[in-house]
Amino acid sequence: MGRFATTVALYEELRPPYPPSFFSEVAQRLAFGMQHALIDLGTGPGLLALGFAPYVGRIVGVDPEPAMLAAAKNAAERASQPFTLIAGKAEDLPDDIGRFDVVTIGRALHWMDREATLARLERLVAPEGVILVCASFSATDGRNPWLGDYNSARRVWSKESLWSESGSAGRTHRDLAGFFQGTRFHAADVIKVETSHEISVRDLARRVLTFSSSSPDVLGDKVDSMLRDVEQRLLPLSREGSISEVVVTMAQEAKR
Hints:
Layout: H1 8-14, H2 20-29, E1 37-41, H3 47-52, E2 58-63, H4 66-78, E3 84-87, E4 100-105, H5 114-124, E5 125-138, H6 147-157, H7 160-167, H8 169-174, H9 176-179, E6 186-200, H10 201-207, H11 216-219, H12 223-234, E7 242-255
Helix pairs in contact: 6-12, 10-12
């Protein structure tokens, strides 16, 4: 069973969303069209690929977790959207898979082997293609005053080694220059879209279960205790049980 197998049911619902305005902004800035093909590495439940689907001609998703692929397949069927799904790691894709105009990577880059991934990207990206490393996260500049307490609660309930690993994810997403150093790719642009929405304290507590370091599989019979603890920490900061969340959605572009 993969590290995210027990998070699937909650992942799409509770992670900070990729809003429609993000997809339209990126597609407009980069002039996506029906002649373009997109492959999403570490697709999970297909959030990125399906979000960009209206703006490109073909989408492909790759993921090693069978339960995530099943969720992506169901999401594509609900949207009546053709979506080719491939089971496996991005690093292990066959040479004959072809080239793509757009390669997207969401909350997955920090799980990938750098050298193997770079070698595969050399073969995947079309001559005029781009790589988009995308992230969606709660703003950390003070506009989410509950975030410090929330992260403290996550540390309490996460395996420390895995928390450290997941905590490095943001740095991995942001240091594309370092990731692509020594290759033909270079970081070209950053596209950011900010949105805000209301989220219940209950759902923020349940979001803890979407991380591999604090998944239902990791927490086991401590799930209910975790939910109670996180809710108790956040309720004094909420308004009638809900919290306003400012979300930053980012696409970092890399090209040859």
